[in-house]
Amino acid sequence: MMLSGRCLCGDVAFEVHGTPRGVSACHCGQCRKQSGHVWASAYVPEADLTITGTPSWYEASGTAKRGFCPRCGSFLFWKARDEDTISFALGALDLPTSLTLQKHIFCEDKGDYYDIEDDLPQLARS
Which domains are seen in the chain, by residue range? Predict the structure, then answer.
């Protein structure tokens, strides 16, 4: 499988080689604040993601950093410090993706202004 995506302005683009895993919607407070709502993503081994352009990285915590376009601000990547995988934003992908949301994560932190109304698994954490 090969997927491609880019930020809103096009300065940062990426290609995904291989099969994405963990297709999920994250409801944690950090994702809500950075994306403005829920952040949908999947992950692949770092070797399966090619980034063109230079994202800026924000050290969001002691365990992970978040990558975004320095020009338009699109939130594109999430990378745990001690893992060899990287998550990418589903909303930045070119269509069609052939991906299907599998679960909701960090549901205990979700905003109080919406409900999760599908039948997918809802994990309190990840």
Answer: 2-109 (2.170.150.70)
